[in-house]
Amino acid sequence: MNDLRVQYEQIKPQIDAALAGVVENCSFILGPQVEGFEEAFADYNDVKHCIGVSNGTDALKLALRAANIGEGDEVITTSFTFGATVEAICDVGARPVFADIHEAYFTLDVDQVKNRITNKTRAIIPVHIYGQVADMEPLLALAAEHDLKIIEDAAQAQGARYKEYLAGSLGHMGCFSFYPGKNLGAYGDAGGLITDDDGLAAELRLLRNHGQDPQRKFNYRGIGYNHRMDGFQGAVLQVKLPYLDTWNKRRRRVADRYNEGLKDVDALILPAEAEYAYHVYHLYVVRVSGREEFGAELKREGISTAVQYPYALHLTDAYAHLGYKEGALPVTEKACQEIISLPLYPDLLDQQVDYVVEKVRRYFR
């Protein structure tokens, strides 16, 4: 599905030098490499602040904490996501409220969100799934009307755009994962938040480092966490960031080649790019009936596939206490039964894509 070694070999001298610099300076936690990445990533996203943290899950949790969301509050989000999105809501004591998704794009359906707002709602977390940004303008309008926070889960959408705006830069805070397989990936766990709000940025910096005053060590201004970014990850991300747009263009090129080769296979529903979006194809996800048989046949042909995600979160044991039953989110539930990802990464060769296309077409003859 993804060959990280190919990417490493292309930038090996820069990566090795950056990692050696961390060792030479002994700047293992936060430090100049993290600060350098924070400045560069904020500039890339055209925002004032980036706060480097330990992973994407912690980024979401810190965003909720900084927004003073907790027990008794409700946060509207999607059930069609990696578990961390909802895990973070529960971790701060709030209640996740699920809204269904847009059938073509897998992102939050704005009308469904609107119908779930109550006097307990404090925030909306749109998930920019697979590299496609949710429809943000109507969500931002809803948030303004009801005095809600928008916390973007952009874990899969580094460099994606909503019109001219980059994913993560439209809401009050944008949360990113830099897990190694992401479009912009570290060499271990890492995450980050971006914001234009000075107050939120200051609070996030306190929370990630045990609540300590950044200027006065061991002076605790609040109860925080150990959610700091490592120097090694800051160094790696600084090296990789200038390549992100090029890598995303390559991802789009691979997706275009798949689209062209598979466009007349009626048994497949191919990914759709919203008219407002610049999709960066963290994953290339198709829909098909008989997914297990299809995936097994591709495996026999030496082609890796994956399913992200086979289980709607509202129907899993972890969230049974919320009381959702089968049929509550029909679009989400149907998607979870049909989706499957074909291989896609920036360095996938044309002949490799063509091989996948050939085997897929043969399966449906």
Give a summary of the structure in a few sentences:
The chain has about 375 residues and is α/β, with parallel strands linked by helices. It is built from 13 helices and 14 strands.
Secondary structure class reads alpha/beta
CATH class of the largest domain: Alpha Beta
Strand content: 15-25%
Give the fraction of residues assigned to helices: 25-40%
Distance between the termini: 24 Å
CATH architectural arrangement of the largest domain = 3-Layer(aba) Sandwich
Give the count of structural domains: 2
CATH fold-level name of the largest domain:
Aspartate Aminotransferase, domain 2
Strand-and-helix sequence, N→C?
A: HHHEHEHEHEHEEEEEHEEHHEEHHEH
Please, what is the average pLDDT?
96
Biggest sheet record = 7 strands, mixed
Looking at the structure, what is the overall shape? globular
Number of strands: 14
Radius of gyration: 21 Å
Residue ranges: pLDDT <50 for 5 or more in a row? none
Strand order of the largest sheet: 1-9-8-5-4-2-3
Number of helices: 13
Structure report:
- The protein has helices at residues 4-10, 12-25, 31-44, 56-66, 84-91, 110-114, 136-146, 198-208, 231-240, 244-262, 291-300, 330-338, 350-363; strands at residues 49-53, 74-78, 95-99, 121-124, 149-153, 161-162, 165-166, 173-177, 191-195, 212-213, 216-220, 277-278, 284-287, 339-342.
- The chain has 365 residues and is of the alpha/beta class.
- It has two domains: 4-242, Type I PLP-dependent aspartate aminotransferase-like (Major domain) (Aspartate Aminotransferase, domain 2); 243-363, Aspartate Aminotransferase, domain 1 (Alpha-Beta Complex), CATH 3.90.1150.10.
- The strands form four sheets. It has a seven-stranded mixed beta sheet, sandwiched between helices. The protein has a three-stranded antiparallel beta sheet with strand order 7-6-12, with no helix packed on it. A two-stranded antiparallel ribbon has the order 10-11.
